[in-house]
Amino acid sequence: MQDFPPRVATFFTGTDDAPSPDPDTRSPAAFLRWVLGQQKALIALSSLCYALWFLPMTLGPWIFGRAVDQGIVGGSTPALAGWALLLLVVVVIGSVFGIVSHTLVVRSWLVGLYGTLEMVTRKVAQMGHVLPRRSPTGEVLSVASSDSDEFGALTEIVARSLGQLASYLTVAFIVLTMSWQLGLLTLVAAPLLVGAALPLLRPLHRRQQVERSRTSDLTSLATDIVAGLRILRGIGGEQTFGANYDRQSQSAKEAGVAAGIWQAVVEAVGVLLSGIFLVALVWLGTREVGSGALTVGELITFLGYGLFMVGPIRTFFELAQKGTRSLVSARKAIAILEQRPPWRDPDAPVALDGTAALHDAASGLTVPPGVLTVVVSAVPEQSAALADRLGRYLPADTEPVAADDEGGLKGRAARRARAARAEERARIAALDEERAGREWGVTLGGVDLSRASLADVRRQVLVSDTGSQLFAGTLQDAVDPHGRLTREQAEHALRVANAEDVYDALPEGWQGQLDERGRGLSGGQRQRVVLARAIAADPPVLVLVEPTSAVDAHTEARVAERVAQTRRGRTTVVTTVSPLWLHHADHVVLLHDGTVVAEGHHADLLAGHADYRRVVARALDDQPDDQLDDQLDDEGVTR
């Protein structure tokens, strides 16, 4: 039986050879069948417990009717006591299994919820930087949060519906033996009433899709605003983005109200039809008593079952509603989970030598082994693109496919919109696979990175850029996420990054908790903790993209000096225009239009290359005079 916490070990190979088979993403219905199939034993046991929980309502009216006919009307005290004792036993059984069924169904709900969350997490880890090229961040977050809850709710309602179905069929059998007319009415009432409400589910489904999509867009917008809040404040863009968020939130609210109206209509129809069924059952039963076909006790039984049948009918309505919502969520989930990474390891991968020279054919850059190389460019995006190539990362040159928001589209138009989005996702995936499958153009020791396994590339070349994030957890987890370092090694990495103040600011030190994305830290503190993590990994080739752009000059000077000392003898590439880094560089490269146009020592380039001087002039002007004069004196250069 599937237990909690869920053990989902899929997305290792992209095939059913993984420890757990990949989910069935052929269609939303197929995905939901897979989700339910993962817990079939637990759902079956929950359904049985539900049926036993409903036992007092299933057998109670019949027992009570027999007690009236034989004990009260028949005047038999022993018969009355016997039926009362049987009713007590049934009630006790129902009470016990009510507790058990609730425990099991909460467990199945959590398994469905956290199982989906773990699948999304594994998919994000498997896809890495490729996933944001295909799907908006807010869409991924929505699948991991709200949609996973829908799948958990589906397992609960399926188990409850199966238990109610067993009780429903038992009641139908009992009333058929008492009166075939009333039994037939009871048997066919539920499917007829649910079928009458099915036409309302299509507009409900459509409006729930719109609500889900707009909520996802709102989540994406909120994520972007929070991530860029400091920048927005710096440029005075808070009001503009606040107005955009307000418009999107109103749009999401309108979609939610529309979906709520239709859901209320469906529930109202369910109550109305259930009431009509109950009135019809009472009217027919009264006539049967009047004609002598039924006893008083049997009429009481029918009335009890009439009230009881409202429950199963409403449960079946709820199943239809939650099934509709789950289909909407499943369509979103499979758009994420069906993605496949573009990387394919060669049949005979070649091992990389991290101590050899690194060469990029597109720019003409050659990084000598074992030295600190600083790449200077007037356009930061060009040096960042170079860093991506050195680490074998796909360029960020595509916009993710928007979430499904079909608005007022119906029928064929809605299907065309979904097909267009699927086609765009397939186009981006094909583009990624084409790029990842060809010669990469970056060699390490003369071996093109495409000829090595991706895992080997990641071991040999580590790229830490401005997009690197901190996860919620302890400071120790942030610096040493794999738990490989000794205390002394971790402290050394923190010192190299000049991040001791982060340790001092946390009451628990290494066990102090950091918020997601390090929100409790300043921008400079976050940047230095990220740098400490990169230093602690100690890769053969380390590529740092603007590692100290958010710190003051004095801190930057200490970081540059310590990194240069710590990484001496190993290959390090830093993309920056800061003179404090250039002062420690063994080798400096100037990029223009993404191509190497000059290289050498910082002092020589500063003295003899006009383009180089123009690129670093602003950084020189921004540097404190005392530090600048000392640096220029050391280098033999005058202002």
UniProtKB/TrEMBL annotation:
Keywords: ATP-binding, Membrane, Nucleotide-binding, Transmembrane, Transmembrane helix
PANTHER family in the record: ATP-BINDING CASSETTE SUB-FAMILY B MEMBER 10, MITOCHONDRIAL, ATP-DEPENDENT PERMEASE MDL1, MITOCHONDRIAL
Transmembrane segments: 41-64, 80-100, 257-284, 296-317
PROSITE patterns found in the cross-reference section: ABC_TM1F, ABC_TRANSPORTER_1, ABC_TRANSPORTER_2
Principal place of residence: membrane
Compartments (UniProt record): Cell membrane
Official protein name in the record: ABC transporter ATP-binding protein
Membrane topology type: Multi-pass membrane protein
GO molecular function: ATP binding
Every ABC transmembrane type-1 domain range: 44-325
Family matches, as InterPro entries: ABC1_TM_dom, ABC1_TM_sf, ABC_transporter-like_ATP-bd, ABC_transporter-like_CS, P-loop_NTPase, Type_1_exporter
Domain ABC transporter: 343-618
One matching Pfam family: ABC_membrane
Keyword Ribosomal protein recorded: no
